[in-house]
Hints:
By secondary structure, the chain is α+β, with helices and mostly antiparallel strands. The protein has two helices and six strands; from the N terminus they run ββαβββαβ.
Amino acid sequence: MKVLLSEMEPKKIGVVVGIDGGKGIVSRLSTLGIRQGVEIKKISQQAMRGPVVAIVGRTQIAVGFGMAKRILVEVDIDKEEIE
Length: 83
């Protein structure tokens, strides 16, 4: 199931399948490790359009809600991070 990172449920794991944006946003996200084909785990999201916290590789990052709306993720509905 494909969803935007901003709409993804916390604790879910998926693979980035696309980024909707120009060279600038793609470059910024790439420096954070977010690029097509990378596994991403959503940790949390602040209320009212706040930042989205996720794990990419071994790094925990936070991206703004606007950027999170541009990241398309293929979510594995059976796969969930176990704490």
